[in-house]
Specification:
Layout: H1 4-21, H2 26-33, H3 39-60, H4 67-87, H5 93-113, H6 123-140, H7 144-152, H8 158-183, H9 193-212, H10 217-241
Helix pairs in contact: 1-2, 1-9, 2-3, 3-8, 3-9, 4-6, 4-8, 5-10, 6-7, 7-10
Main location: membrane
Subcellular location: Cell membrane
Protein name: Probable membrane transporter protein
């Protein structure tokens, strides 16, 4: 790959931001990697990278997670990520990227400017959030923002938020990695990136945790929403410019 050093640096930045935001690095890594690799290769390499990324987060934030949310969000997320991964080869990704970008921008702005809005911590809301995050993850390679907003509505403590998100994401990525391999998205000539990205995931998670130790719970929630907004704008800009 040309500009490998730049790719590694940007992947590290994505991992740090994903850790601070609590919804995983793929939200930032997918747009970054798409400048270096074709879309299907991005899906394959992101799923494998994210497995190691989530293992790093579970190791660093293993003190707490919400068992109920693991079930109510995790199970529908895994079911629909498999569905999304299978049909990803038949759907126009540009249309889905525009829809995702619009959703992220609108929803993050609503929660930023109307802080009194409360999503009730019901099983229905968890299932809906898990369903959409899994489906989008399978189709576009990233559904962490939707899962992040679902978890943010429950006002979880920072460590519980990140650990719960990482465990759910690990199940999602393991499932879609199998389907992406079946679809032919995982290429032998890209496999040399896996050990590099493994080191990036550990380093990025470590740095991200250090940053999180310096901020409050309220700052953390605001950072999540601002990062989601920025990602939505960047994603929309990229699609429109292309």
């Amino acid at each position: 790959m040309e500009n490998l050093a730049l790719f590694i640096l940007l992947a590290l930045l994505a991992e740090i931001l994903g850790t601070v935001g609590g919804f995983g690095s793929s939200l930032f890594f997918v747009p970054i990697a798409s400048y270096f690799l074709d879309f299907h290769s991005v899906l394959g390499i992101t799923a494998l990278f994210h497995v190691s990324s989530n293992l790093s987060k579970i190791a660093f934030f293993r003190k707490g997670f919400d068992k109920k949310l693991l079930v109510s969000i995790g199970i529908p997320a895994v079911i629909f990520v498999i569905t999304g991964a299978f049909i990803s080869q038949f759907i126009d990704s540009k249309t889905l990227e525009i829809a995702l970008a619009a959703f992220l921008i609108i929803t993050s702005l609503v929660f930023l400017f109307f802080k009194n809005i409360i999503i009730k911590p019901t099983t229905t809301n968890s299932v809906i959030g898990g369903t959409f995050s899994g489906l989008i993850a399978g189709l576009l390679g990233t559904g962490g923002a939707i899962r992040g907003m679902t978890l943010a509505a429950y006002n979880l403590k920072m460590e519980v938020f990140i650990a719960t998100s990482a465990i759910i994401d690990l199940a999602i990525d393991s499932s879609r990695s199998i389907v992406y391999s079946y679809n032919g998205y995982v290429h032998k000539h890209d496999m040399y990136l896996i050990p590099i990205l493994l080191l990036v995931s550990i380093a990025g998670t470590f740095i991200g945790k250090k940053i999180l130790n310096q901020i409050s719970e309220q700052q953390f929630k605001s950072i999540v929403l601002i990062l989601i907004l920025i990602t939505g704008i960047v994603t929309l800009s990229k699609v429109m410019l292309n």
